[in-house]
Amino acid sequence: MKFRLLLPAIGMLLLPLQVAKADPIDRIVERQMRQSSIPGSAVAVVEDGKVVKLRGYGTAAVEWNARVTPETPFQLASGTKIFTGVLLMRLVERGEVRLDDSISRFFDGAPPTWQSITVRHLIHYTSGLPFIPGAAGGKTGAEVIAEAMKAPLAYPTGSDSQYILTNMIVLKAILEKATGTSYEALLDREIVKPLGLKSTRYNQMVDQPGNMRVSEPVPGRAVVYSRDGQRLIVREAAYNPASYAAGGLFSSVADLARLFVAIDSGTFLSKESVAALITPAVLSSGRPGGWAVGWTVRSYRGNTLVGHSGGPALSDVVRLPDRKLTVIVLTNTHYFYPLLAEAILDTYLPARPPRVTLADPAPDLTAKLMAALSSAEKGKLDTASFAEKARGQAASYWDGFGQGYLAAMGMAHDARLVREEKRGVMLIRTYAVRFSEREGFLEMSINPAGEIAGLYPVSER
């Protein structure tokens, strides 16, 4: 198909909207930055093709006190997949790749199990391709693909939807084979140049012998920080170029706003392509998967919510498709959890009705939840109530990224049961937890022995 030129008005919509008078969004962001010790952040809100909020906050680089602006490039981490989904659908519209192409046609010697796997399965994470150790590290794409060909599927194709990096490495290779163009060049050709993006690029960072980490400069970029106790530290990731479809892209809220203005305009992607970005896979069981074409799909306060976060909150993009309302939040700290975009989105939604809770038939399980949170708040999860096989993963989460979640939420005061269901042999309990800063939701899995098999934050449905 032929692509129409974007309206010149799109550029006019992106004039800086920074104003001195603080609004509710400013207060939400600034409060959270203080609570979570976030050096810098940036926010954009796009509503029905118009940028209604565009602002930077705080410091992009502490070392030289560089301020955040709407054009400051931030590391998107897994938020890169926002661009990957759009890029794939642009190539589908051009006829350069088809979602229902078998991936076996792109790889000599592909095993029989790959014949029924399609490009659509890859981008929906329903392929069943296995996790390959080292895929996020120094292995080349060819090495990862060769190992994946020899390994059995992790689950039958189409039966489940699990994020496994192998899918994105194989997808990147397919796009490059189908077009004869590198992934980075495709991104420039299909998105960066047509939309006039100024801050969207990879830095090609790699580790080299002699303890050297080498990258290309990204002018004005935000430095990524974390915390070691009370000490602020620089914590940069070197993304494997083979996995660039999954993470590693730098961009700004201004560039992301331009992208969503273009999507809303109807001139950049067809209605069918936009529908593919927001429609989740249907698994063989009939239930929906968690991903559409690269974007996550979930329910939030009774609405369908799409987007992606990464790092876990270096980037957080949420969108209400029915309202063409998109909230974009970028930060430069690993020590945080993706909470701000939802908090900003709440200012556009009706007030919450009174919380409906259930009578708790097993208060002893709730006590285990509160004890686990109490120990995690002190910096180290007590895993005594956890199943032995779950202890390592739970401790890794709550002693790591979970500390950012607790720092943002504050102290847990009480937990109310809002949902209880059986999934196979597991009892799944969802709680509304009253923290000192806000309400949060946690999902706790209980095995038949009454032990905690999993405990993680979830979004409000």
From TrEMBL:
Protein name from the UniProt record: Beta-lactamase family protein
Q: Which UniProt keywords apply?
A: Signal
The record ties this protein, via Pfam families, to:
Beta-lactamase
Coiled-coil parts of chain = none
Tell me which positions the record assigns to the signal sequence: 1-22
Q: Where is the Beta-lactamase-related domain positioned along the sequence? A: 25-336
